[in-house]
Amino acid sequence: MKKLLLGISVVLLWSCTNSSQPSVVTFEVMEGVATLYVDGEEWETRAVSGFDFLDMAQEAGVNTLRTWGLLNLDNGRLLDEAHKRGMKVLVGFWLAHQNLGIDYTSPADSTKIKAQYNRITAAVMEYKDHPAVLAWGVANEINAKNAPPEVWNAVNDIAAFIKEHDRNHPTVTVLAGSKPEQIRDVMERAPAIDIVGINSYLDTKKVRDDIQRAGWKNPFMVTELGPDGFWESDTTSWGVPLEVNSSVAAQMYSERYRMVDADPLCIGVFPFKWGSVPKKTPTWLSIFLSDSCKTASYDALYYIWNNNYPANRAPVVNNLTINGKTAMDAPVLKTGESVLAGVEAADPDGDALSFQWEVLPEIILTPGIQGTQKITVSPLEGLISSGNGRNISLSCPGTPGAYRLYVYVYDGNKSCGYANLPFLVE
Fold first, then answer.
1. What is the pLDDT of residues 372-420, one digit of tens each?
2. In 10 A of CB 87, how many CB atoms?
3. Which range (15-24, 238-247, 256-265, 295-304) has the least confidence?
4. Per-residue pLDDT reduced to its tens digit, 357-375
């Protein structure tokens, strides 16, 4: 994407369109500059990685969504809803990762590989004429954890089928990171792929150089982007990752988005996640809270797409402390110890703020079939004494272990800020 439309474009509803007419999506690269076209018109991608809170997506000017697997399509209802709102969808197909459902190197798993191929190609035939389809995303991060080269046979077989049976929509495959040698794997082993997608967080600054070093000449997308992930963040002395607060997260979304969007081969940036994705914490990489409250990251993206902020902005949150210590100080406390916690917060619109505090045991992650899954934990009761909202008294849990203190700051107008602080109890 080379330029951004200011304001929100008029949405043509389903009743004003021919629903049986498939979209025709093409791209060109002229003198190193990539352009995406939909039905012959340049498509200025304002995209998100996710498909929740579509009213707020439309309000912000979003015109492109991204999914990961067939279940996300809800039997085509998501495509119908996107089309009614004038949106397109990068339709993702989840391919099993190596040794998480399929061993691509084992002849014994050929039946599973074929079943996966049949399931996905059937979906292509079912949805290829839907006017909301932008492109096909064949696999998500299948290159992760030193996957064997055989995974690309499965990707290319599906992409080749698409190119034979659907000439209207390009093929995309999404990589974990932007290592040049893995981009070259796509070029050499999956030639039926048109566009490479990159999921990148901490290393977003490397994406543009890595694309050039790989020799990739077609367009690329950054299909996930946000603050540092929990797998790559600084950690405490007891090994748990440090999450930035909502205000710092918003700054990271903005800076990293603009960094990659400036590349002339980039035709789309998809901030992750448009919705809530409670894994390592209830807030990490979430543009919204689970109660649908907008964070400052929403405000930052709204500004990029519209060149102004929304009418109501989220609270600014800073300096969550326990006994004056921040997360970087890694507080170590005693069982049953009473401590004081506080947070600095302000509202850009002058709204009155309310504060919600809770303590959770540290969430432990385990590998899952579709990414890393979390073990659900509940807030611990009876540890927080009433204070003035910004400051509380906290009694440490009676059981040694790793915990986090969370604070949520609400403005009464469906916007919020957040911060958390890990602490160890001995």
1. 666 678 999 999 987 779 999 999 999 999 999 999 999 999 999 999 9
2. 24
3. 15-24
4. 999 999 988 765 555 666 6
CA-based nearest residue to 43, from 59, 14, 58, 23: 23
Cα gap 323→266, rounded to integer Å: 46
Which residues, at least 6 apart from 262, have a Cβ–Cβ distance to it below 8 Å? Answer: none
Rounded Cα–Cα distance for residues 131 and 420 (Å)? 43
pLDDT of 367 reads 65
Task: Show the DSSP H helices in 172-273 as ranges.
Answer: 180-189, 207-214, 246-261
Phi-psi map region of 217: left, alpha, beta (phi>0 left; psi -120 to 50 alpha)? alpha
Asked if residue 279 lies in contact with residue 234, where contact means CB atoms within 8 angstroms, the answer is: no
Separation of alpha carbons 215 and 225, rounded Å: 22
Q: How far apart are CA 297 and CA 246, in angstroms?
A: 7
Question: Taking the complete model, does pTM exceed 0.90, yes or no?
Answer: yes
Q: Supply the DSSP symbol for 181.
A: H
How far apart (Å, rounded) are the C-alpha atoms in residues 44 and 132? Answer: 15
Does residue 273 have a cis bond before it (omega within 30 degrees)?
A: yes
- C-alpha 393: how far from chain center: 35
Q: Is 103 helix (H, G, I), strand (E, B) or coil?
A: coil
